[in-house]
Amino acid sequence: MSASAAHACLPLRGDCAAVGSASRTSRRRSRLPQRARSPAVRCARAAEETESAPRVATLRSGGGGADSLVICRVLNGMWQTSGAWGRIDRDAAVDAMLRHADAGLTTFDMADHYGPAEDLYGIFINKVRRERPPELLEEIKGLTKWVPPPVKMTDSYVRENINTSRKRMDVACLDMLQFHWKVNLTAVWNKGCVKSRSSKKRMRTCGAAIFFLREFRNFEAVKIILWWDYSNPGYLDALKHLTDLKEEGKIKTLALTNFDTEHLHIILENKIPIVSNQVQHSVVDMRPQQRMAELCQLTGVKLITYGTVMGGLLSEKFLDTNLSIPFAGPPLNTPSLQKYKRMVDAWGGWSLFQNLLQTMKKVASKHGVAIPTVAVRYILDQSSVAGSMVGVRLGLAEHIKDTNAVFSLNLDEEDLNSITEASKKGRDLMKVIGDCGDEYRA
Q: What is the separation of C-alpha 62 from the centre of its chain, rounded to a whole number of angstroms?
């Protein structure tokens, strides 16, 4: 990275702050006495000394490029801030982010469409700048995604959207921008729920959620379907503009979300410096270990996984439950639980899933940890996986202890074989669904 690009990665101090002023602020801080480490930070560092598995991974473009990013191997997933899980208390959420960072869980994954996620990160990172030692600030990474609507990917349009994320997150340089190609929109409706023919016509071309909510009298009767359309070469145009922004120092590393193996290969052939691809990966969904992992081994691109604990399905809470009987089991009352229950159905059904949970419970009990800890460790041990996501319900629930237990857990050969055997009893989702991300395509 050039000297100018390096300076551009200094933190912004407000929306209109210049990089030069950020640099001067940094120099002034360097002359101030170093703050004492908080007890939480000292405890996190002490815990690292007893861990047997690496806490961090380094992502590099092309497997050996000059640009790199060090991330915590367990990422704090912020999809839960999107609003579908309930109201977010800003102050409580930021305080929870600080607790995660103090505990050594320093990497946060978000997106431009995860409600206030980027804004929360901006508030959080400023509190870290003011209240935490510079060593912790250096460890914190904010990974965001950009999901553009179906418009022409011009330089000005891409630049405007990336600048919006930079301002919201209050950084001059995004640690990572993960590109998410979700461009086509279709509405499926039941007879009588659309007010007029003109509404139908506009709905086919308009992707605005505000229009959707205003025009339809029966929300339940309408379903919005978004899918990837690789026949539209706009994704390559967008990635080339993002590469330019990276060269300018506005983005440190470029990555992808939910791209399949074929199109990851095409992107790499176009000399786009991709460091990772974020894909769904769990003990139920082992698709990434087929074609995708093979390409990653050849190119050095790493995988960041989500859905690794299946929204909480891979936990003691759902062990020995029967969801076929109404109200007999825990409610599937979040979008992630509903989503991953569908994956269980595609894989083999609830009865077979119970067999898998029982196997994982035996392994968890053997090591004195919880089932989600085993679920994450198993995926982190897979080929080309740099990190796995654990969703955080900021200010509502915390699992910091169980999450950190991942780093001291070593699964032996017997553990790995028993989990693999239980996983393989289900269907091969590559044959059922297709490659990574195909579940979102028409």
A: 21
